[in-house]
Amino acid sequence: MPVLTQTDELHSIERLREQDLEEARAIQSVMLPGQPLRTFYVTISHEFQPAAVVGGDYLDYFLLPDGTIGLYLGDVSGKGLPAALYAALAVGTLRGVHKTGQTPARVLSVLNERLLLRGIPGRHSAIQYAIVDPLRAQMRIVSAGMPGPLLIRGGECRALQLAGIPPGLFSGITYDEFTLELLPGDSLLFCTDGLTDARNINGEDFELDGVKDICRRHAADSPIDLLNHLFSAIQDFSKDCLQWDDMTAAVLHFAPSSTGPDVSPIAQ
Questions:
Q1: Number of domains in the chain
Q2: Is the pLDDT of residue 244 over 90?
Q3: What is the pTM of this model?
C-alpha cells in the first residue's frame, strides 16, 4: 500500500474541497428558476452570476394557485459558501410560506421571525417580494434593504422608493406594502447591488445611473434581451477587474397578449 506524503494529502483535501464546492454550486443552481416564466400577461427572465463558485444571492418566481405570480429576490450578507448556506435557509423558509396566500408583508414578517429562531449571528438577508395580479393589472411589493426595483415605462426608468429592515436582524418587524398599477408594456427590473457596485480599473462604480441608462436604451427589448444588454455592459465596464460581489437580476414584463392564454409549465 503506497504511503501518502503530506503533499499528496494536501492535494487530496483540495480535490475533495473542489468537489464539494461544485456539488454546492449544482445544488444552488436548482434553487433558481429552470426557465423563463411566460403567461398570457407576464414574461419573466433572470440572470445569476455568483462572484465565487457559490453565492449569497437567491431568486425565484412562480405561479400561485389563485392565478397570481410571485417573485422574490434576496441578497445575503457576506460572500461564498456561508452566504450560500444562509440563502438556502431563506429559500427553504420562503417556499414553506409563499403558497399559503399570505400577503407579501406577512411573508416577510414570517421569514424574519423564522430566521431569528435559527440564531445565526452576523447574518441577515435583504429581500424584495412581489405578487402580481395580472387580471387586476397590479403588483403588490415589499422591499427590505434593497434598492428599487426599477420601473421601465414609456422609455423612461425610475426607481420605486421603498424601504424596510432586512429579515434576520430584529424581532417584531412589520413591513409596508406598496401597490403599483401596471400599464401594458411596463417592465420591472429587480437586481442586487452587485450590478450597481461593479467597479472598473479606475475605481469607479457602475452605479444605479448606469443601470438606468441601459434600461432606457433597451426599454422595448424582451426581458432576456434587456438582461443580456445589461450584463454585457457591466462586463465591458469592469473589464480586467475581479468580480467581488454576486450579480443577480430579473426582468418582469407586463403585456397582455392578443393571442390568448399560454401559461408556461412553471408553477412551483
A1: 1
A2: no
A3: 0.85
